[in-house]
Amino acid sequence: RDQLLNAHPELAPKTAPADKTVPWERVETILETSALPGVQAITGATVFKDHVYAVGGRADDADTWIQLIRVPLHGGAAELLGKAKIDVPVNALQARLARTVSACCVEAGHAYVGTETDGIFCFDLGGGPVRRIGTDQGLPSNAVTAMDLLAGKLYACLEGGYLVMVDPEAGRCD
To answer: Which of 11, 106, 120, 172 can pair with 133 through a Cys bridge, CB separation 3.0 to 4.6 Å?
Structure first.
């Protein structure tokens, strides 16, 4: 490598000027995967009020799971909330989690995680059971490509060209 770059300096990667400033004052690590037993990867982070919510991926011998993680913005330990089984091969979890989880939205007591394999998961922030909203509950596809919340309703883009409104309280899709 060094011989090649000495012979052809135009191939060397460009470096940023030393006086280049960045648009932030500091960077602070608030969560490391190694601090969460069993969690192998993290994706889908979003901020709601005084917390960051992220989706962790974990695998056991035969199954893969997503798990909601709540991290206080102003210090403190991360909390592992509910978990849900997903359709991703155990040996592919780390490589595919970021592509599998397409969205994470939080509002008033619930976090909603859209996936490209299993529809939408509704996590109770108080620790209650996780509910799934998929084709059995009226979604035309389980492949969620984008999702957001507005006034208590979820709006999701699904594979196949669908835009649906989901009433998570009623478990109904329109």
So the answer is: 120
